[in-house]
Amino acid sequence: MPPEKSKIVFFDGVCHLCMGSVQFLLKHNQKENLYFSAIGSDVFHSLIPINMVSKLPDSILYWKEGEIYAESDAILQLVLELKFPWFLLYGFRFVPRFIRNFLYRYIAKHRYHWFGKAETCMIPSPNLKKRFLN
Known about the structure:
This protein is an alpha+beta fold. The chain has helices at 16-28, 42-47, 50-53, 71-79, 97-115, and strands spanning 7-11, 34-38, 60-64, 67-70.
């Protein structure tokens, strides 16, 4: 499937919280229709217009069939790809976006302090490698 028609999770490859989120998504995405790539990868730069890159957060982004979702909108879209009971978290869409995004930004701002930072990007196991894009 061409990347522009895929569902791609872009993540901060050295953030332990982000890598943990990727592991969680891999485990709970039964359809295996999510692909993963680091923010700043070749796939990222081929899909995201250069003038948009600096306006996006550097934590988790979700590219869904040509549309980019950021902050809490990315998380809400991603839970729709998960099995029960996780997709029920989509109910948080009724919380006003400014509240959801405030909480998202607060956690993102402190993620390295709270969860740590790796020296290098995670290397997927051979059986998961097909779900990671360069």
